[in-house]
Design brief:
It is built from 19 helices and 4 strands. It is mainly alpha-helical.
């Protein structure tokens, strides 16, 4: 068992205790970040005269060699080491001897792991945000292609008013745009460097923490060493942002599952569906269902870390080792779901005729029929009752309002004239809604132009 802290102890750690305490099986994921942090630390130590230039070069070459060998597969990260920090330092000492023993000068594993986790999280945010950008581009393309694709809008899962597919997709563009803004905000707030905080109280060495922060791309050093080693707010913020993002994906997937059903038949997608082992007629929206289901994993990660952190006194405690596995799983889950969902949406076929037919037979133009009466002097409450009777008549005859003969209209109200059909035409119903954010063609053109500009500046 390779340990860097054994001097205080007279007995070897029990193997079960050692295994329970070790984190190498999962924290090896940020070997790049650990080596990157060490390279910056060594450069700072040499700048401050704590290391000689020769020692700096030896350690730097040794660290770069370890990185190269790990990435090529020549060097395997062994679980005989307690954590990734121990692996890198012990391997460095094996390779370059005594100069390697100076790597940890002015540093604790507490501020080291805090740095590694921040660097790793910052890298992951950039990767996730790039995927969100790709998803937004797919959604925007669907919007651009479907400004005149009419469909029912829903409330309470009941057909309510006619909209367009572009308008429906625009709602999700707004959701994922907010997700992007949250990721950007987290990146900005978390961008301070904890290295140099030591175990909790800084160090007596004359470290230049501003220089280290600059080398690692941070805006500056953390200003309290106790908070520097014990802060995991940035992880909680990211898991919260990912939970909200997964909720958006899950809502979208729920709609796709509904739209894919035999009753709706709004969408079709062979590439992201599967069949049944027993029912040959089935085509199941498995990817949409899995994304919907995996949302719970990300929620679980957030709740787990919140629960872990709620009872921890200052400063660092071993409980914080529990931040990694859940966070890693949540990040991996979110990335996989975003990528698969974007691919599914890109290949999805929309049954436009079926969507328009559904809007008509769902009486989504009933409100417009009532507005027609109001515009002809009928009080709204009376108009509401008249159109309700029209809908009952249409249900009995199994036809939409568009197909009800004029004489049937006039039986219920003599106010109706031939122009009622133009008033309740789906194109008319949609396009006369011209307020900002509405589904009308002119309003949608403004929204799409704003989204296009947003993506250009992303």
């Amino acid at each position: 068992m390779a340990q860097l802290w054994g001097g205080r102890f007279t007995k070897e750690t029990d193997q079960l205790v050692y295994n329970f305490n070790a984190s190498i099986t999962f924290d090896k994921r940020f070997y790049k970040q650990d080596i990157r942090g060490s390279l910056a630390h060594v450069a700072m130590l040499a700048k401050q005269g704590i290391l000689t230039e020769e020692e700096k070069e030896q350690i730097t070459d040794g660290l770069n060699g370890i990185l190269k060998d790990v990435e090529s597969g020549k060097l395997e990260i062994s679980d005989k080491y307690e954590d990734i920090h121990s692996f890198v330092e012990a391997t460095l000492i094996d390779r370059i001897g005594d100069p390697g023993k100076k790597l940890h000068t002015g540093r604790s594993r507490n501020d080291q792991v805090a740095l590694d986790m921040k660097l790793f999280t910052r890298d992951e945010i950039q990767e996730i945000d790039a995927q969100v950008k790709e998803l937004l581009e797919v959604i925007l393309h669907v919007m651009e292609e479907n400004v005149e694709t009419y469909m029912p809008g829903f409330t309470h899962l009941q057909k309510a008013q006619p909209i367009t597919l572009a308008h429906h997709m625009g709602a999700y563009f707004e959701m994922f745009r907010r997700d992007h803004e949250r990721l950007k905000d987290i990146s900005k707030r978390m961008n301070t460097c904890p290295l140099g905080s030591g175990a909790l109280a800084g160090t007596t060495y004359p470290l230049d923490r501003e220089y280290t922060a600059e080398l690692l791309g941070f805006d500056g050093p953390t200003l309290n060493s106790m908070d520097g080693v014990s802060d995991r707010d940035y992880l909680l913020e990211l898991l919260s942002a990912l939970s909200i993002m997964m909720m958006h994906l899950s809502r979208f997937c729920e709609e796709i599952c509904i739209w894919n059903s035999n009753e709706y038949r709004f969408v079709n997608d062979d590439a992201y569906s599967t069949g049944s082992s027993i029912m040959p007629q089935k085509k199941n929206p498995d990817i949409a269902e899995l994304v919907r289901g995996k949302t719970g994993r990300v929620y679980g990660a957030l709740n787990a870390l919140l629960t872990t952190m709620k009872g921890i006194p200052l400063a660092y405690n071993k409980d914080m080792q529990e931040d990694k596995e859940w966070a890693f799983d949540a990040m991996d889950t979110a990335k996989g779901c975003i990528t698969l969902f974007a691919g599914m949406l890109k290949t999805m076929q929309f049954n436009k005729d079926r969507m328009e037919e559904s809007a008509k037979h769902g009486f989504t133009n009933a409100t417009d029929a009532a507005d027609y009466l109001v515009n002809h002097g009928v009080p709204f409450r009376d108009a509401h009752g008249i159109v309700g009777k029209l809908v009952l008549t249409c249900i009995e005859k199994k036809i939409p309002l568009d197909e009800l003969p004029l004489e049937e209209y006039r039986k219920i109200s003599p106010v109706f004239e031939e122009d009622i059909y133009k008033a309740i035409d789906l194109e008319t119903c949609v396009n006369k809604r011209v307020t900002i954010g509405a589904p009308g063609k002119d309003a949608m053109a403004k929204s799409i132009a704003a989204y296009q500009k947003y993506m250009e500046e992303y």
